[in-house]
Amino acid sequence: MNGGGAAEVVDIGGGVVGSSAACRLREDGVTGRIVVVERDRSYARASSFLAMGGIRQQFGSSVCVRMVQYSVAVWREFDARMRTATHAPRAWFRQRGYLFLADDTNAATLAAREAAQAAAGAVRQRLSVDQIRALVPGLALDDIRFGLFGPDDGYANPREVLFGFRAAAEAAGVEYVEDAVAGVQTRGGRVTGVALASGARLGAGGRQRGRGAGGRRGGAGRIVGAGRTAASAALPLHPAGENLACDDVRWETEFYPALIRRLPAAVDVSDVHG
């Protein structure tokens, strides 16, 4: 379809944010035409598609903590809730917890972060070295002073989440147009339409969201990460522009060696994607 015509809602960007918003609009009783404009149906360049999928509430902002706590119930029910006649998502939310380790270089920072998290209402635990050892046997802890653990934290498969939301939105009658937004048309401070790169125009009859109008653009295994090390601090800044290629050299020379020093049992792991 060319994407033209009138719409009650025009949603610019069909990633997790856009597709979940479209789903929620239907759940909230919006019965008019909802059109999501997404420039790339493969999502190969989308942040939703390239995300790690981490879900944690260890933040110092009460707003962020409350949002994540609300979302946990959604993630627990996601696969069943988003199942349609033609698509069965496998987001596979796993609450294995987030563990941050404190050594002499970052202990003060993590202690301050713990206080902020407590004030914000985050579910977290301060662990002694012995408690960490019991939680993760085989972890090298000679330099560790304490740990911060979020037992409710975990991860989901971001690509399954993305396509699960999209399939549910489409099953609810949301239309997806593969196109790019050329501009948002306004009159008297109100949005009147959205011009697409193909030349088509969507008349906005009620609501719209998206970057063009000042809005936001939108399995088995473990997630591992490292803090800002001396090696990463010395790396040059990436040049301006879009570069989505995984830096395999950093995995091989920085992250993997640090991982097996901390957890020798991980010597046989391999990267899935980055």
Mind explaining what this structure looks like?
By secondary structure, the chain is α/β, with parallel strands linked by helices. Among the domains are: 5-53 and 157-213, FAD/NAD(P)-binding domain; 224-274, no CATH class. Helix content is 33%, strand content 21%. It has helices spanning 16-27, 47-50, 62-81, 107-120, 129-135, 158-171, 230-233, 248-262, and strands spanning 5-12, 34-38, 54-55, 98-102, 125-127, 146-150, 154-155, 175-178, 181-187, 190-196, 201-209. Helix 1 packs parallel to helix 6.
Return Rg in Å. Answer: 22 Å
Specify the biggest β-sheet: 6 strands, mixed
The SSE string, one letter per element, is EHEHEHEHEHEEHEEEEHH
Shape: elongated
Terminal-residue CA separation = 34 Å
Give the % helix. 25-40%
CATH class of the domain at 5-53 and 157-213: Alpha Beta
CATH 2nd-level architecture of the domain at 5-53 and 157-213: 3-Layer(bba) Sandwich
CATH topology of the domain at 5-53 and 157-213: FAD/NAD(P)-binding domain
Rounded mean pLDDT is 87
Find the count of extended strands (DSSP E, 2+ residues): 11
CATH superfamily of the domain at 5-53 and 157-213: FAD/NAD(P)-binding domain
The residue ranges in which pLDDT falls below 50 over 5 or more consecutive positions are 228-232
Share of residues in strands: 15-25%
Strand line-up in the sheet with most strands: 8-2-1-11-10-9
